[in-house]
deoxyhypusine synthase
Amino acid sequence: MDSKSVKKLLRIYKNSLFEGRNVYLACKEIAKMTKYKVFMALTANILNNGTYDLLFSLIEKNMVHVVVTTGDFVVYDILRTLIGKDLNEKAFTAEDEETIKNFIGQIALENCGATIPPSKFIKIIGEKLGFNSILGQAARNNVHFYAPTICDSLIGIYCTDIHVDSLKDVYNINYECFFVKKTGAIILGTSVIKHTVLNANLFKNGLNSCVIVNTCNEVDGSDSGGDVDEAISWGKIRGNTTSVKIRADPSVIFPIIGSYWLSKV
């Protein structure tokens, strides 16, 4: 979406009700983050050709500084970069699995016996893929990628010759919040990615700004369903913020808020 279309849409949402109004408020919140250290959390299934390019641009322009995702995101980026595979259009095949097996197997062989955290392993993958990939751009711009559940994917199946130290990354991502004046977060989705970002910011007395997008509710009794108020009660988001949660499909909302964010460059 171009900036004029986004701004026109937001003028409509400004006087809307329910989640439309929250989309407007979320964009206003994101505008504050241009001078913050920004954390982003998202799952692999949010990505398609359009949103892939959007995230690529955000990382290329250094608007995101820390990303928390899943092992499948890494798999997606490998397949898209090496063989042009779009998993939203074509089903996963045995050929795709062989591509992952060979690529990851070669990296594992080169680092045989090493003990490394997932973030370092992802950086190695990015350097191998090159600058046309999201992970390659992240490695180039020193954007740190974390995948707490990286072994819950094909990466875990074929990464057999090295030791993945996930505990080290707990320290690493928490340390991202030390000695930082202001942090912001955009959380697209639920579960581990959401908790990891919020919990890390507990170590700096909470996020200064946060936008959460998912379809879960507080009545679930889950971390995923937790509202902004719940995070404030734990000190993960500061109480004096105007952080907002949008109860909607992240794949629908991300193109709007992401395009608005890019217009702030």
Remarks:
- Strands lie at 37-42, 66-68, 115-116, 144-146, 163-164, 183-188, 209-214, 244-247.
- The first strand starts at residue 37 and ends at 42.
- The chain has a mean pLDDT of 90.
- The radius of gyration is 18 Å.
